[in-house]
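User: Reviewer 2 asked us to show a designed sequence for the structure in our supplementary figure. I'm pasting the structure tokens here. Could you produce the per-position amino acids so we can include them in the response letter?
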């Protein structure tokens, strides 16, 4: 029967994450390849989930999400960003940010429409754009500073541009887009009458006083912006898959139309727990960021001591390191050898690119791990150093 997979999804086979995680298991290496924390989020949130399960909140929640979570999302947007969001008409709860991204792209794009995004990109972007039959147009963020290149960004826009799919703070680079960069992106979106879809799942994971600027707060942008986030990163609960999208009512209605036929609903008892978490005091949010900042410093120091060149990330829980100073010319081959060389796993950044040459020698490592795990990883990485 040949390959039953539809043509537009060919090329999206097993991801490098599966290969590298399997390698970590078989070699006993420390897995800094996958981006999930190895500790739990706030105890109040965990207790609220247990309570929800024990008190019978185990059936389908309402399609748009439970009212208390939608209200908590609206309060969160006002509290941190001064955004006014109507929880009944402008918020939709989704199965993680991943479903929100898919539902938005499928709802807004006709086949042949173009989606502008930056590479490297989170891998679901490319697959989702392909699923929609849309066309990906990218602008490359280049190591070491990952600055937006205005000329290439302008060139990515055309009369077919339907939306810009942006991610700030940005996985895998750890970049937090500056206000000026966002203003440029928004000006181009307005010029081309395009939507801006902004994936802000790392909104609270920013360091050194960097400012996360939600696109919807920029002048005139709320009416053409769909903002996506999720509880997974903010509250170290990636397995709960509670995400959301908010924006103008007509767009959220369109997204809900698609979303109801993807999962319909998800994560029933976790929704009230995330509502509790969103309302926790500022110190909970700040505590996670400061603990991650210390972990970032630890891993960056260890990578430098191992002889790699590192760009210090301003946000997220990822760092990109260049292995070229070690004589590496192919990061994929290097990552396959890394467990044997020093007992650590990372992922080659080329898998997040259309143009693998843009990241030939770059490796992404995650630092959302316990301190003892990171200390051990750092001592192992020291073995890479030639001198
Ligand atoms: C940029 C980005 N967007 C979305 C997601 C997925 O979020 P969720 O687990 O809520 O679906 C991730 C997860 O790694 C991510 O890095």
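Assistant: Here is a per-position design you can include in the supplement:
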């Amino acid at each position: 029967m040949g390959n039953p997979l539809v043509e537009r999804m060919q090329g999206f086979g097993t991801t490098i994450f599966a290969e590298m995680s399997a390698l970590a298991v078989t070699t006993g290496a420390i897995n800094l390849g996958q981006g999930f924390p190895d500790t739990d989020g706030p105890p109040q949130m965990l207790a609220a989930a247990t309570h929800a399960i024990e008190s019978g909140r185990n059936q389908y929640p309402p399609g748009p999400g439970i009212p208390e979570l939608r209200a908590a999302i609206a309060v969160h947007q006002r509290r941190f960003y001064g955004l006014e969001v109507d929880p009944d008409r402008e918020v939709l709860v989704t199965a993680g940010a991943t479903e929100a991204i898919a539902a938005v792209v499928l709802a807004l794009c006709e086949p042949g429409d173009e989606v502008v995004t930056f590479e490297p990109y989170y891998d679901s972007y490319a697959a989702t754009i392909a699923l929609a039959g849309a066309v990906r147009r990218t602008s490359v963020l280049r190591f070491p500073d990952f600055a937006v290149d205005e000329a290439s960004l302008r060139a990515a826009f055309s009369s077919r541009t339907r939306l810009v799919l942006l991610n700030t703070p940005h996985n895998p680079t750890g970049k937090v887009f500056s206000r000026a960069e966002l203003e440029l992106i928004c000006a181009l979106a307005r010029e081309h009458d395009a939507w801006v879809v902004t994936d802000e799942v790392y909104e609270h994971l920013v360091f050194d006083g960097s400012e996360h600027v939600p696109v919807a707060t920029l002048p005139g942008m709320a009416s053409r912006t769909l903002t996506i986030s999720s509880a997974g990163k903010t509250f170290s609960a990636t397995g709960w898959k509670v995400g959301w999208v908010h924006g103008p009512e007509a767009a959220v209605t369109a997204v809900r139309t698609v979303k109801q036929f993807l999962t319909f609903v998800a994560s029933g008892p976790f929704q009230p727990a995330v509502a509790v978490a969103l309302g926790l005091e500022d110190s909970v949010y700040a505590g996670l960021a400061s603990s991650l900042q210390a972990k970032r410093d630890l891993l960056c120091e260890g990578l430098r001591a191992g002889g790699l060149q590192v760009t210090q990330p301003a946000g997220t829980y990822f760092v990109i390191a260049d292995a070229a100073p070690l004589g590496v010319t192919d990061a994929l081959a290097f990552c396959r050898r890394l467990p044997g060389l020093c007992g650590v796993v990372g992922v080659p950044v080329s898998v997040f690119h259309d143009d693998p040459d843009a990241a030939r020698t770059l490796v992404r490592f995650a630092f959302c791990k316990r301190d003892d795990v990171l200390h051990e990883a750092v001592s192992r990485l020291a073995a890479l150093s030639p001198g």
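For the response letter, you might also mention the following. The mean pLDDT is 96. The radius of gyration is 21 Å.
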